[in-house]
UniProtKB/TrEMBL annotation:
Domain Isochorismatase-like: 21-214
Protein name: Isochorismatase-like domain-containing protein
Lineage: Bacteria, Bacillati, Actinomycetota, Actinomycetes, Mycobacteriales
Ranges that cross the membrane: none
InterPro entries named in the record: Isochorismatase-like_dom, Isochorismatase-like_hydrls, Isochorismatase-like_sf
Annotated source species: Mycolicibacterium confluentis
Pfam families recorded: Isochorismatase
Amino acid sequence: MTETTEIPAAPSPYPLIAGRTALIVIDMQRDFLLPGGFGESLGNDVGQLLKVVPPLAALIAAARDAGIMVIHTREGHEPDLSDCPPAKLTRGAPSKRIGDDGKYGRILIRGEYGHDIVDELAPIDGEVVIDKPGKGAFYATELQDILTAAGITQLLVTGVTTEVCVHTTTREANDRGYECLVVSDCVGSYFPEFQRVGLEMIAAQGGIFGWVADSASVIPALTILAVSAA
Ligand code: TIU
């Protein structure tokens, strides 16, 4: 029997279905979160993202206890930048560009220290890590195949940044038919205004491309699943 419980959410309760749900953790990489990385090179206050780490660590722990699939993503490129469109490479006026040497190795390059996930949220054995060249986690990745093979229809979406990779991924997922709940205190933006409006945009118009709830609403529902599964 499929175990289902409801999460109080905007704009309506969200169906959490055991065996059909994955938690996706987007781009919690040192290059976005730590001073000296890509995020700071774009002129951003990286401190805004660090506050996501404690609630997200608790949510990941609850998902693991409930047997929910946890999928991590990392934004980055091959060392020769062959998968980085010139428009992405040259956009804006960063103090350092993708591929330049930064404090944690070459910025947003696969295999470099800065490209990897922060220690507090490191994947454990058996968890999927998707390396993506774009902002969305579906573009040029194996994510859809993995979700299809696992029978996933519901996505709990977390990570950074709310208005960029979280939005792009949620919109891509919504178009593919996944029901997405974005966890408000487990996503972060460099800009408080974008955080607020970014979350409002998802749940507006009757949930135009998803649901929104905080981790205090999601964790008890995960705990119910964990108890039912035990
Ligand atoms: N700059 C910014 O807000 N975000 C990114 O470049 N990537 C992600 O959101 N992961």
